[in-house]
Structures are given as structure tokens and as C-alpha cells.
Amino acid sequence: MIKGAIFDMDGTVLDSMYLWIDIGPRFLEHIGVKTDIDIKTETKTMLFKEMNEYFNNHGLINMSLEEFTDTANAMVEEGYYNDVLVKPGVKEFLEELKKRNIPITLATATDRHLLEAALKRNGIFEYFDKIFTCNEIGCDKKTTKIYDAANEYLGIPKSETYIFEDTLTPISTLSKTDYKVVGVYDKWSSKNSDQIKPLVSFYTDNLSSLNIDEF
Predict the structure, then answer these.
(1) C-alpha dihedral (148, 12, 173, 69), degrees to nearest 10
(2) Which residue, 60, 83, 106, sits at the end of a domain?
(3) Residue 166 burial (CB < 10 Å; 0-12/13-18/19+)?
(4) Mean pLDDT, residues 146-156 taken together
(5) Domain check: are 62 and 103 in the same one?
(6) Are residues 41 and 147 both part of a single domain?
(7) Do 58 and 149 fall within a single domain?
(8) Which residues span the domain enclosing 109?
(9) Non-local CB neighbours of 211 within 8 Å, separated by 6+ positions
(10) Which of 24, 73, 115, 118 could form a cystine bridge with 80, CB 3.0-4.6 A?
(11) Judging by DSSP bridges, how do beta strands 4-7 and 104-108 pair with one another?
(12) CA distance 57 to 138
């Protein structure tokens, strides 16, 4: 039985992954740096810390992690403030969880000012009892650290906590724990759907199609 929920944001709650696709080469283009290195391939799975170190080590930039993060965030800011929309079925599903008094948290790699702008504009900010960000926790999603922090807040056994995610890396990691995982289809991670499905308790392309009584 579901007693608590932890949601990823980009690709799960919001249709926002397009803002981050190929962020490495787009970042260099944004600041006017050209290179012969295949940046798209090299940075495909990198998070900001890794990407910043890679660019600095290859002499492409001379930036602190804070400066790098601020510049990258500025590139996607307009999207979060004005464009990205909540995915179909999300609001209805969150409403159903609230009706059942199931606590809801958010665990995301996106910085707080961006997520708050998008969630509030889409009218779903108030559904989340608490929000956790990788930057504030000091982690990435290659470990369970951010989900464990959210679960500690919920105070619920992992076996009764459902985590909603769209991408393979965190789902693969979570599948080795006692958490229950729901895979959420997103077009940007759809190439991994066949790998994701065996790892999750449920897989859906629309959260409102899920029957909470089956959890």
C-alpha cells in the first residue's frame, strides 16, 4: 500500500526535458566557445559538476562551479518562467493523492528558483509538502541520497514509499532498494523504455491512468 510519494520533476511532473537536451554543446555555443571535441557525446550523461570540471580541464572555460551553474540556469530560465507545462494527468493524480492524505515530496536536480516558478505557474506547487533539490542536498541522482532525504522527511518505510521517475539511471539505482518505483514515459527518455519497464512496479504514459488502489 502506498503511504508516501516522491516525485522527480523534469520529465515526470513537467514536460521540461527539452530545456536540458544537449546542454553541454549549447552552453559552449552560448558563451562563444568553439571546439573540435564531440561535446554532445562526451557530456551526454554529465551533471553540472562533472561538466564544469570537464570543460575546465580541457581549457574550454575558466569558471567556478557556481559561475557555470548560474550561466546554465540563465539559459533555461525563460522556459521555466514562461513556457514549460505540467504533463497530462499529473495534476489529477496529485489531487487524488491529497484526497487520500498521502504526503507528497519532490526530489529534483533543478534549482529551486526555477522549479518554484514553473510549479506555481502551473498551479501545482501547493501539492508538494516539501521539495528537495540536489544542489541543496549536495548530491546527484546516481545515488539514492536525495530520495533518502525525502523519505526521511516522510517518515514512512521504503517499502511503502513510491518514487515516480522517468529516466533510466535513477530508476536502475532505485530498483536495487526497497523503494517501489513507478516509471513515467517521457519522449526524451523513451529510447530506454524497454530497459525501464522490468525495473519498476508500474509504468505509465499518463499518471491519471493509474489506479492507486492497486499500489
Answers:
(1) -80
(2) 83
(3) buried
(4) 97
(5) no
(6) no
(7) no
(8) 4-16+85-214
(9) none
(10) 118
(11) parallel
(12) 22
Of 83, 113, 136, at which residue does a domain stop?
83
Cell of 162: 513510491
Give DSSP secondary structure letters for 64-128. -HHHHHHHHHHHHHHIIIII--BPTTHHHHHHHHHHTT--EEEEESS-HHHHHHHHHHTT-GGG-
Distance from the first to the final alpha carbon of the chain: 5
- CATH code of residue 145: 3.40.50.1000
What is the grid cell recorded at 173? Answer: 539505482
Question: pLDDT per residue over 8-65, tens digit each?
Answer: 999 999 999 999 989 999 999 999 999 999 999 999 878 888 899 999 999 999 999 9
Asked whether residue 112 falls in the same domain as residue 38, the answer is no
Residue 104 pLDDT > 80: yes
Q: What percent of the chain clears pLDDT 90, i.e. is strictly above it?
A: 92
CB 105 within 8 A of CB 7: yes
Closest Cα partner for 43 from 35, 55, 34, 32? 55
